[in-house]
Specification:
The complex is a heterodimer of chains A (389) and B (126).
Chain A lengths: L3 E8 L9 H15 L10 E5 L3 H4 L5 H9 L6 E5 L5 H14 L5 E8 L7 H7 L15 H16 L3 H15 L13 H6 L2 E3 L2 E2 L9 E9 H7 L4 E10 L15 H14 L8 E3 L5 H10 L8 H6 L10 E2 L4 H5 L3 H16 L13 E7 L4 E9 L3
Helix pairs in contact in A: 1-3, 4-14, 7-11
Chain B lengths: L7 H9 L3 E6 L5 E2 L14 E6 L2 E10 L12 E8 L4 E6 L12 E9 L2 E8 L1
Parallel strand pairs in B: 6-8
Antiparallel strand pairs in B: 1-2, 1-3, 4-5, 4-7, 5-6, 7-8
Classes of the chains: A alpha/beta (389), B mainly beta (126).
């Protein structure tokens, strides 16, 4: 297999945007092309677009072709859309990676985009319900927050994790987001504000959840030869892994505090990269809800099972700790425009490993990890390294 | 494809009449729910229907306060994952008990929750 690197990245402002679906594609594409001026649209051989529900939110399908035309890209090797609920962006990056590693393409853009906010406010919540099994689970009035609340409740009962520890994940990620001009939320929140925020699905309160957000992000992947032509600081894809436990809740590990598929996905990625969790300098993990980040510390191997709450409370996942988790502000601080999230995570690691993350820079960052999941049972992990790491 | 021993439709029709049905693998004895094609344990297709008593304990639960359209008028309501005595887990709506009484490990019993044409699984006091 050939080596593959990220050579460019760009992200739109995330938030409640007046922009149309196409506007968001334009904006992310421009930001990405601006980051690597020697790449022009006709130089790209492929485009993969991660997007979950434009059929509902923008009355639009045929997404990859729309985005290619909007950006002036004329794919000659690869054009596809990925839909894998909240992990669609990273799943798209894996496809582009595989194409380039196999020698089927040399230069491919992966773009993630989602326009979630709708004129009728509860439309977005209804739409998010398409991610759970319609016949078996949605019939109970189940959407995403209650699924993760079941994991939180179990983690608290089993390991003594506290609501305050869940709240501290929100405090940390909102603080990081305050240094990210593209984040949905930039004011920061105090623990009192988190604990006083509205209960959504017990024990998850509003500021323990990611918001409904519009946004897009794009990265460019290149073969080793092209990468070395284009930049002196390529960010190498060192490892990747994906694993699935199941779709419906009752098909998962019967103890919802355990997400074995995340552990397997990370072990595949670590093995491929010839590294271990202690080598990771920064990790962009899928904090759709606070409990997800706490369980991620455990399954990714940053701490022992059951210690995730303590890990955040003692600052071990913040600057100055063992590993900086969610330096861009995570899904809670940046928002979670489904298909865009995994691509925005990659864009953050790209900036960090090139030393371009400004006030968010993790000192001497050499190895970065991204984790993207779709539900509690399906996980994707990428490991990136700077030159020589 | 073999004919389904039970389908989602027949599962909920049976549930409406107060009966919970799972499937048991005729080769290895694995119990499963909802209906599946292959046995996840031995990869065979030898399912037979098996009645479930509907008794179990709550393995996790959540009280939903922000509900999707179609359920908004019902909030707050609780959804629980119940480990049935036979060893298989089932999702259900908590009924006939105060939400503040819910704890992990609480014994509960199945009862059908009928809303017009639709039936879903409910769990109430044991």
């Amino acid at each position: 297999m050939r080596k593959v690197a990220l050579v460019g990245a760009g992200v739109t402002k995330f938030g409640v945007r007046k922009a149309t679906y196409r506007d968001l594609i334009w904006e992310a594409g421009k930001a990405c092309f601006d980051s690597v001026p020697s790449v022009k649209p006709h130089g790209l051989e492929g485009l993969v677009v991660g997007s979950v529900m434009p059929e509902r939110t923008a009355f639009q399908s045929h997404i990859s072709s729309l985005a290619a035309e909007a950006l002036g890209i004329t794919p000659s090797a690869l054009s596809a859309r990925t839909e894998h609920m909240c992990a669609s962006g990273t799943v798209g990056i894996r496809y582009a990676y595989a194409f380039i590693a196999a020698g089927l393409a040399d230069l491919v853009m992966v773009l993630g985009v989602e326009k979630l906010n709708q004129p009728v406010a509860d439309e977005a919540i209804l739409n998010m319900g398409t991610g759970v099994d319609r016949d078996w689970e949605a019939c109970y009035g189940l959407t995403a927050p209650p699924c993760f609340a079941l994991a939180a409740q179990k983690h608290m009962a089993q390991y003594g994790t506290t609501e305050e520890q869940l709240g501290l994940v929100g405090v940390k990620n909102h603080a990081h987001a305050s240094k990210n001009p593209n984040a949905h939320f930039q004011k920061g929140v105090t623990l009192e504000q988190v604990m006083g925020s509205r209960m959504i699905a017990s024990p998850l309160r509003l500021f323990m959840c990611s918001p409904i957000t519009d946004g897009a992000a794009a990265v460019i992947l290149a073969s080793e030869e092209r990468a070395r032509d284009l930049t002196d600081r390529p960010v190498w894809i060192r490892g990747t892994g994906q694993a699935l436990d199941g779709f419906t809740l009752t098909s998962l590990h019967e103890d919802y505090a355990h997400w074995p598929a995340m552990k397997r996905a990370s072990q595949s990625a670590y093995r491929m990269a010839s590294i271990g969790p202690a080598d990771v300098d920064l990790a962009e993990v899928h904090d759709c809800f606070a409990i997800a980040e706490i369980i991620a510390y455990e399954e990714l191997g940053f701490c022992e099972k059951g210690e995730g709450g303590h890990f955040v409370a003692t600052g071990r996942s913040d600057y100055g700790g063992d590993v900086v988790v969610n330096s861009r502000g995570g899904l809670m601080g940046c928002g979670h425009p489904l298909g865009a999230t995994g691509v925005a995570q990659a864009a953050e690691v790209y900036a960090q490993l090139r030393g371009e993350a400004g006030p968010r820079q993790v000192a001497d960052a050499a190895i970065g990890l991204t984790h993207n999941n779709s539900g509690m049972g399906e996980h994707v992990v990428m490991v990136y390294g700077r030159e020589g790491a | 494809m073999t004919e389904r021993v039970i389908t989602l439709k027949s599962f909920f029709e049976e549930a409406r009449a107060g009966r919970l049905t799972g499937i048991r693998c005729g080769k290895c004895g694995e119990l499963a729910i909802p209906p599946k094609e292959f046995c996840p344990a031995c990869q065979q297709r030898a399912w037979g229907p098996v009645p479930l008593k509907g008794e179990g304990t709550i393995s996790s639960f959540t009280i939903i306060r922000v509900a999707p359209r179609g359920h908004a008028g019902e909030a707050p309501y609780a959804v629980a994952v119940v480990k049935l005595a036979e060893g298989v887990s089932l999702l259900g709506r908590v009924v006939d008990m105060p939400l503040e009484a819910l704890t992990v490990g609480l014994p509960v019993k199945f009862r059908p929750l009928v809303k017009g044409e639709q039936t879903v699984v409910g769990f109430g006091p044991a």
